[in-house]
Structure formats: C-alpha cells, structure tokens
Fold each of these.
Amino acid sequence: MPLVIQGLNKHFDNSDKATLNEIDLEIESGEFVCIVGASGCGKSTLLNLVAGLEKPTGGKILLDGKEVTGPGADRTVMFQEHGLFPWLNVIENVKFGMKLAGVPKDEQEQKAMHYLKMVHLEDYKDYPIHQISGGMRQRTALARALTMDSKVLLMDEPFSALDKQTSNRLREELQRIWMETKKTILFITHSVEEAVYLGDRVVALSPDTGRIASIISIDIERPRHVYSPEFVELRHKIMEQVRGEAV
C-alpha cells in the first residue's frame, strides 16, 4: 500500500472549524484516485498535505510505510498553473527537475524525449514557451512531472484554467498516458465529469464537516466515453452527492 492517510486533520488559525477532519484513505499502487467537492471543502489542502507542503494538525500520511514530514522526490506535484520557466525552451523545461536531481545528461535527453513523444510535443522541443499554446504548456509540465519517475503524481486541477475543448483533449491524453504507465495519481478536480472520466475511485469531500462524504468506485471500461449510459448515470449520482453536501 504506497499511500495511506490516517485520521488526518487540518485546522487553520483563521477558521472556526477544521478544513479536514479525520480523513482516512488508502491508495493502491497504480491507482488513479480523484478528489471532488464544493469550493472550500479542502481538496487542495489535502493534496498540499500529501505533498508535504503543509503540516497536518493531527493524524499522519504514510508513503510505503514511511511518514511524510515534508516535500520529497517520491512525490511530484503538478499545479493548475504550469510553472514553466519562460527563459527555457520546451525540452530544457522538461529536463529541469532532472538537472536538479543530478541525473546524467544522456539520461536527461533520453527521458525528456521519451515523455515529449508521449505527450506529442517532440516536434516542439526547441520552441520558446511563449510560442506554444496553453494546452501545450500543460503537456510540457506533465512531461516534466513524468520524467521525475516519482512514486506518486499529485495533480491539483491541472486543466481547469483551459478552455473546454483543450481540457477535454488533455483528459484523453492523460487517460492514455495513465493506461500506459500505471502511475499512482491523486487528482484534484472541481469537475465531476472529469473525475468519472479519469478515476478508478472518486472521493467526495464534505465542506460542512471536512470529512469524506463518500467513495465511489468507477467500474467503467477504459477508454471511457462521456455519453455512454453508465458514464452519465455515475456522473449524475456523484453530482447529486456533491450538491447535497454543498447545501
């Protein structure tokens, strides 16, 4: 069991109630888990705690049996904003994390090209960042995250700032890449449709109690199609759950 969250609590000093309250969750190796919920329910806080960017008020997080006490190379985070460096071109951005980690240059080149091909950007490897679209920037950021080969990939609403068409295309890309790599992914999203499309399980958080309201297994064959009857039924079920918790 690579990622175990036990009795996790988070209380901020400027709030009268806990943002997260007694969160218990186990994520299997190679599993794709999506976290959904209304604004303010603690989705991003949960990801930041797993990333080691914030400290819990109580409880603990274990990765392969070792307690998470801060950021580490075993977890890679991909945020809503791509976080690319404008003075570096596409492939140099993809190599950046590997350079910091001391990966040999030949291996940097090999892995960067491997993942650029996976996200269909090999022909744009020498382009400056300002010359590629928003969707291509997010694909560059995804390639950079994948090169780190961490145990867990943490994604915080990575497609929410993009237009609907681009975001749908990137969902398809991510589903394909996950099917190829079987990377363990914890994915934060405000979109129930996105969660049902991508996740093995969907975890709905309650904004009122800070607890897990429900965990739904998505037993739909991949690749998934948003207009299939089983997809529509599950999406509606989870949307009603999230709406009910928000009210």
Amino acid sequence: MLQFGMPTLIENYTLEENIQLCQNLGLKFIELNMNFPEYQLKELKKTKKFFDFASEAGIYYTIHLDENVSIADFNLLVRKAYLRTIKKTISIAKKLLPLQNRFGNQSMSFIINMHMNHGVYMTLPKEKIYMYDRNLNIYLDCFKQFRSLCEKWIGNANIIIAIENTDGFLEYEKTAIDYLLESPKFGLTWDIGHSKAIGETYVQFIMQHKDKLQHFHIHDATTESKTQKANNHLALGDGEINIKDRLITAEKTNSRCVLETKTIDALRKSVAYLSDIVC
C-alpha cells in the first residue's frame, strides 16, 4: 500500500509545526531537508527530540541531503566535508530507523535522498564543457570511493541512498549512477514534477533502472510550450501529469511518496486530490 509524506515546508519554522501539519493531514512521514537551518547536523544529532516527537505523533522520517553536496569536488577539503556530512547523516538515520519500522512499512528502506551536482562548467564560443566530464577518471574515482564508504557506513542497516533526478542526468552522471546502482545500498528517487518540466527527457533512463526505484517526489507540473513556461511543485491536479499512472508505478516498485509541494495550501489541496484517486 502506498505511503505518503510531506517535505519540510518553508512556512513552518519548527519541527513541531511540521509534525502537527503531518498529523492533521493524515500523512505518514516527513522528509527532513538539510538545506534548512533547522535540520543541519547540529540539530539532527538531537535524535532523542526528533524520535520522541515523531513517536508521540505516530509518524517517521526520511532525510533529504543538502542539494550542494558534491561527491567529486576537486577541492579535497570540501569533498571530505561532504563525505563526513553523509557519514554522520547515516549514523542519524540508523537511530531514527525504528520509527519507520513501527509506523511505516518494514519492507521499505529508510531513504536518504541525494541530488547529483553537475559541477562547474566553462562556456566556450560554441559549447559548454563540464569539468567533471573533462576529468571523467577523477570524477568516477570519487564515486568509487563514495560507494565503498557508504557500504561500510550503512553496513547491515536497512538504509538506501536514493539518487534524485532534478533537471536531468548528464552523460557522465549516468555513468556514475550506473556504478552506484550496482550496490544494494543505492537506489533512485523519481521526481515526477521535475521530470515533466523538462519534457520527460530522462524517463527512459529511470525506467531502465525501474527495479532500483525506492522513492518518489510527487508534485504536478507543466512542460514548456509556445504559450507557457515550464512549472513544477504545483498542487496535484493543477498541472499536466497523469498522477494516477505515476502512483501505479510507485506502488509496483514499493516506493514511498513525498507530496513535494512548496506551500501548505498546495499540500492540503494535494492530499484532497489524492483522496479522490487513491482507493
């Protein structure tokens, strides 16, 4: 059975506000977003607070890593800082995992969601060259180290690092993702709104790895046309996506779904929309 959760919303300044909203809407979990100051490691390490509040409310968590994480940053000091952040995040996830087993679905893994960082590029007169693509061997070596470290840090815990599509995957990123997905500790997040906004360009790549889907970011979106700009993070029903079709895929892959709208009103509207299409 599908399980729906919510993101941490910018209108809410405290964990308690997010939990209350999650409860009121009948959702199962909150995706803690490490781009917010409230959910930096310093705060997340207060695991007893997070655990007790969620336990009382009957919900659990997933975690969204900082979008700036760059696994292959050429600056070793920067790269080490990101790796250390992920190591500590995994440690926190292990402490929060019992909430999922109690209030969620034990057949699902605890999700740590991650973006791929495109890195720096140089704009030439006739082309744009990404430094990671130019230095592909260095880039891939960093991901080999990353996979090995994550496998060690996660160990036997039921935790998956799920790679999310945002504005699509560049070719060198696909190579790195293919390598990561060979490990049982890595999976995919399908953000259906971002996917729609760029014309579903990378759906084929996602579907080639359908067996690795673990997580969905669900929001409506439109594709750019002559009369409109692309838009996403819309309330369900306000865009062009066949939501029911995407939810069927989520259910078939035993993936959980974050209703990734950006406002409380859009989240409320999306929950109401779901009640009409989900049995």
Amino acid sequence: MTNEVQQKKQKTPQYSPLRLVGILSFVGFFTVLLIVATFTRIKLFNILQPFLGLLHPEFFQDLGSVFAFKSYFYIPQVPVLLFSVALLGAACTMTSAFFYIVLGLTLIPIFGLGGGFNYVLQPSFGYILAFIPASLIAGGIMYRNHSVKNMLKATITAVFIIHILGFFYMLLVLLLKHENFSYIMDWLFFESFTRAVFDIIFGFLAMLLAKFFRKFTWIITAI
C-alpha cells in the first residue's frame, strides 16, 4: 500500500509558486496572442470560390471567372487557440479565452469590429464565445495523450464546435434583426465554411508545432 501511495504522489503535478507564476505568464501571453491574431490578416485563396458560381451565376461572366480563385483574408485566432490547447491544456486556454472576452467586453476594443458590452449583439460574437467550450473539449480529447490522431480529432471537434455554436448565435441575432435569409445562408457557406476549412488545416499544423515546443517547455510538462 505504501508503494502505491508513493507512486500516486509522484504522478501528481507539484505546483510550486515559481511554476504557478510561469503558468500565469503563459496564460497572459496567449491572451495577448489572441488579440494580435484578431487583427492579423493572412491573404489566401478562397478555395470555395467555384461553388459561388453554382449558387450565384450572375456574379460571373464566363466559366473561367468561376475557377479564378479570389483572395480570402484569414484571421488565425483558432490556430492560436489550438496551439495553446496542445501546449498548455484546457484549463489555461479557457482562462486565456475568458480574459480575452472580458477585456473586449469591458475595457479595450480588441474584437474584430470593436468592443464594449454591446458587442454581444454582433452576429459574429458567438464564434468568440465558442472558444471556451471548444478549448475544454479539445483539451479533454488530448488529456495525457498528445498523439497525432488525438490532435487531428481535437482540431476537427474544436472547429466544429466553434462554427456550429457561432452560426446558431449569428442566426439568432440576425433573425432578431430581421435580416434576409439568403444573407444568412451566404454567410454560412462563404464565410463560416471557408474559414472552417482553413481553421482545420492551420489548427492541426499549430497543434503539431505545439507538440514540438512542449518537449522543451519544462514548466508545463505535467499539465
């Protein structure tokens, strides 16, 4: 019995004051990184552009213009979030996301379209709120097991949660504002779907990168 108790104690993470300071520093750093990601625009090609020609042929003059990929400006918030999940775990990432949301609603206009408490009426605010449950579930999937398979599963699950919850929040707000239904569907397909594809690609790459850095970050090796 004595040996079993000693083994359990050895497996239990020891949170010394120095280590707690380090973890809080990481939480603050990723809160700032989420803010930076909000105002970062990465120019990519809109990979769903051909489907726009099928739904809105009036936008295109010929077949060539349908397959002429147009630019899409991607905001890398989700990869930052998933990098934090893979590096720090669910609890720290959720704390960073919570601080990000509180700061944006109360003190600093750090969201894409500003800030303040009235931002809860913005259709896109649901995507931000979904960062918290997405972090929790993705972190739970990878708890004690940072295999590539689990990372891919966590990435797809987190992106699915963010975009499903975000879309239904947006749907509720737009319906309350009596927006046209075609506008809602266009947003879903050409904004949320497009971003979801890039979120999965870059989110998974961010998790792989975090797995590499995790080996050299001594302060969070037991999280």
